[in-house]
Specification:
The chain is α/β, with parallel strands linked by helices and about 425 residues long. The chain folds into two domains: about 150 residues, Rossmann fold; about 160 residues, NAD(P)-binding Rossmann-like Domain (Rossmann fold, 3-Layer(aba) Sandwich), CATH 3.40.50. The chain has 16 helices and twelve strands. It has a seven-stranded mixed sheet, sandwiched between helices. The longest helix is centred in the last third of the chain and has 26 residues.
């Protein structure tokens, strides 16, 4: 018997017991009483099917070798192959990957995509690695996962500090190992390699599609709303742009350097030009500069969280001055913060619904790659809008029917989809 086998089940679970995973697990526990799930199925869904830990050695440009810990977690394969991003970050842990994989399962099930949830990452500081080192890291990480990932097993995508180029390296490495091109092994890759149109904009655009649907239910004209967007990257930047295109006013945005605020609204074209020239929002002229913490508490109608996990907490949720919070990031609201927002009557559009545009268009990309038949940008945008509208309406109606929050309703809808499939399939052997 190995040392791992000698550990109790409870001791093994401690391997992924982190604050973010506890948040995901607590959300699950809060939803279960409203779901159609028996005790044995609920127990199966609490923890991932597989968690892989590997080490990734790379030769640095100076000649020495560094070794980085890396992970890939697959939560559920009941509905189909697992799906989820890969992140490069100094704080990547097994628990973080597990929490994100769990959320991805509910997200895919809620959108009725034939996927389960997965997540992976390498614990490194990508800013300290040269482009050649990042390529070596990506190719070796892909090689280490050769028996774990595959177009019918587990399909990676970009996440924090990874991008189209990262996916191209993964696709090439995997393809070289099997002897032929396999574009469907990843999504979020360049269009030249079988990537999908509209994939880059999908998450941010999807956030605004969900906001617009919510405003319609609430009787709020979106064009009259004043918005604050935490984040100005792939999600926040696109979301801000989409909000302005629909007539809303964006008062503030932020990035790693801090936030900028104008009570009359920002000129986003000028902001984008500044970031393209200078790299960050720092020193952008003729606006009020605020910290990221201050930005969250600015008075507005809609607050979009499109940055990191754990941004709204018990400490600052009491000072949020918004009518609606939209979670463009994964896990941006803690359990305690969520409860306070609910008590204050601030509606929260949960991450598993609100940021599902990315994985939905990733699914479209995978389908296009498998069929070698590609759609236009307008076709993809229309298909995404239909998917998100259907999911939103089901969540809203379930919340009203059971008297629960939108987050609980979104999780219940996703859990029920997975549980029904798990019950029908049974346990092998």
């Amino acid at each position: 018997m190995t040392e791992l086998e000698e550990l109790s089940v409870e001791e093994q679970r401690l391997e992924w017991d982190t604050p973010l995973f506890r948040t995901a697990l607590t959300q699950f526990e809060q939803a279960i009483p409203y779901a159609e799930v028996n005790v044995s199925i609920a127990e199966r869904l609490r923890y991932p099917e597989r968690a892989v830990m590997v080490t990734v050695p790379i030769r640095r440009d100076e000649g020495h070798v560094d070794v980085f810990p890396a992970y890939r977690v697959q939560h559920s394969s009941v509905l189909g192959p697992t799906k989820g991003g890969i992140r490069y970050d100094p704080h990547v842990t097994l628990g973080e990957c597990t929490a994100l994989a769990v959320w991805m399962t509910w997200k895919c099930a809620l959108l009725r995509l034939p996927y389960g949830g997965a997540k992976g990452g390498v614990r490194c500081n990508p800013r300290e690695l040269s482009p050649r080192e990042l390529e070596r890291l990506t190719r070796r990480y892909t090689s280490e996962l050769r028996g774990v990932i595959g177009p019918q097993e587990d399909i990676p995508a970009p996440d924090m500090a990874t991008n189209e180029q990262t996916m191209a390296w993964i696709m090439d490495t995997y393809s070289m190992q099997v002897g032929h091109a396999v574009p469907e092994i990843v999504t979020g890759k360049p269009v030249a390699l079988g990537g999908s149109l509209f994939r880059h904009e999908a998450t941010g655009a999807g956030v605004v599609m969900v906001i617009e649907r919510a405003c319609g239910r609430l009787g709020w004209p979106l064009a009259e709303q004043r918005c604050v967007v935490q984040g100005f990257g792939n999600v926040g930047g696109i979301a801000a742009q989409e909000l302005v295109a629909k007539g809303a006013t964006v008062l503030a945005v932020s990035d790693i350097s801090g936030g900028i605020y104008s009570p009359s609204g920002l000129d986003l074209d000028a902001v984008r030009a500044w970031v393209a020239a200078h790299g960050t929002l720092e020193a952008f002229p003729d606006v009020q500069h605020v910290s990221n913490h201050e930005l969250l508490e600015l008075p507005c109608d809609i607050l979009v969280l499109a940055a990191l996990e754990g941004q709204l907490t018990a400490e600052n949720a009491v000072r949020i001055d918004a009518k609606l919070v939209a979670e463009g990031a994964n896990g941006p609201t803690t359990i305690e913060g969520d409860a306070i927002l609910g008590e204050r009557g601030i509606l929260v559009l949960p991450d598993v619904l609100t940021n599902a545009g990315g994985v939905t268009v990733s699914y479209f990309e995978w389908v296009q790659d498998l069929g070698r038949l590609f759609w236009t940008r307008d076709e993809i945008r229309a298909r995404l809008a239909d998917k998100l509208a259907d999911a939103f309406d089901r969540v809203w109606e379930l919340a009203e029917e059971k008297g629960i929050t939108l987050r609980q309703a979104a999780l219940v809808a996703g859990i029920n989809e997975v549980a029904a499939a798990l019950k029908a399939r049974g346990i092998y052997p």
